[in-house]
Amino acid sequence: MFGQRLRLARKKAGLSMQRLAEQIDPPLSAQAISKYEKDQMMPSSSVLVQLGKTLGVSLDFLMAGHVKGLRGVEFRKHSATSAQDQARAEAIVIEHLEDYLAIEEILELPPQPDRFGELRNHTVQTFEEAEALAIRLRQHWNLGNDPIPSMTRLLEDKGIRVIEADLPPRFDGLACDVELMGTRGETEVVVVSSQSGIERKRFNLAHELAHRVIVAVGPGLNKEKAMHRFAGAFLVPGDHLKEEIGDSRKRITYHEIVRLKQFHGVSAAALLMRLRDVAIVSPSTVDYAFRTYARSWRKSEPEPIGLGQGVGAFESPARYKSLVWRALGDELISPVRAAQMLHKPLKNVEQQIRGPQES
Questions:
Q1: Confidence of residue 129 (pLDDT cuts 50, 70, 90)
Q2: Could you list the residue range(s) of the whole structural domain that residue 130 is in?
Q3: Which class for 158: exposed (0-12), middle (13-18), buried (19 or more C-beta within 10 A)?
């Protein structure tokens, strides 16, 4: 496992074996790095520390305490992504997961039950079937038709670990199963980029949720578009949309689009697509919009939702941080360890332990 982690970290850093070997003091040979990566030899403790610093990863990451590997990785990415970017994304995810699983182990938390019931591992033949699955999942979770205040908190409540990380620029997120060390089996994780806007983040989370429900599509059906359809239906139920603006419209005003997209926490472009999907407006009306006034909406969000505005105030992971503070409060970890796990300066953590001081 050490060799696999070292190789992943080296690829993340974009270094050849020779280049990495030269940055260790005293310098190593490329052959030594090769033996490390093949698990034919282990470095000394001093070399191990230097490898971690040079590659920008923790010793916990290199020594692989909890995560055996990632399986079924589904990237939400733009087309122009390099192998180095993918390695960097996977390394970032594994490093975050090691901390997440460590704090769960420290608190001796039991495994969370599966909240999906029979709504897993489906094959859909049409976009309508993908939409129907989204509706069924909302019903199964008793969500009604109202907007979802926080997709992040919802997934966390349903037993899915959500990590927000500084992913490479061309990645919006990913979902995967996580193989755990020993006999612990598997778990699952969804990762979103901290650089994404609120609208994109919520849609990405709903898209990754779709991958938990839909595993395959019928011949001739585009899988990613089926996931989009599920995500749109999950975030913006058609019945609720029709109650808001009517069953059929010839055109929709800009004011209505902005109001609805902020109400449901989706992008203006996604809102337009939902209007088409549920036949409130015609496909030609939406095509015209994307050729004219909405031409730039896929790249530049009109009137974006701010971090503290509406659903934007709640769309960030909370469970992991809550567990760290719980462990710190119960004196199961030290302030130094908490600062490392929260990626905060020790001074800030100590101030939050003490609270405001009277002058």
A1: very high
A2: 122-313
A3: middle
Structure tokens, 242:
């029709």
Q: Cα dihedral angle (77, 81, 85, 89), rounded to 10 degrees?
A: 10
Could you report the per-residue pLDDT of 61-93, keeping only the tens digit for each? 888 778 888 887 777 766 567 777 888 888 888
User: Which of the pair, 13 or 65, is modelled with greater confidence?
Assistant: 13
Same domain, 245 and 180: yes
- Do 212 and 135 reside in the same domain of the chain? yes
Question: What's residue 183's pLDDT?
Answer: 63
Number of domains in the chain: 3
Q: How far apart, in whole angstroms, are the C-alpha atoms of residue 78 and residue 180?
A: 29
Asked whether residue 166 falls in the same domain as residue 302, the answer is: yes
Q: Which positions ≥6 away from 54 have C-beta within 8 Å? A: 13, 20, 23, 24
Amino acid identity at 309: Q
The phi, psi pair for 191, rounded to 5°, reads -125, 135
Tokens found for residue 81 = 């992504």
Sign of the dihedral defined by the CA atoms of residues 21, 27, 31, 34, in that order: negative
Rounded to a whole number of angstroms, the CA Rg of the chain reads 23
Considering only CA atoms, which of 257, 208, 261, 203 is closest in space to residue 232? 203
Listing DSSP states for 151-188 in one string gives: HHHHHHHTT-EEEEE---TTEEEEEEEEEESTT--EEE
- Give the Cα separation of 218 and 222 in Å (integer): 9
Report how far apart, in Å, the C-alpha atoms of 242 and of each of 237, 245, 250, 284, 310 are. Answer: 9, 5, 14, 19, 22
Cβ 8 vs Cβ 87: under 8 Å: yes
* Least confident residue range of 113-127, 148-162, 168-182, 324-338: 168-182
- Which pLDDT value is given to residue 271? 97
The interaxial angle of helices 45-55 and 2-13, nearest 10 deg, is 30
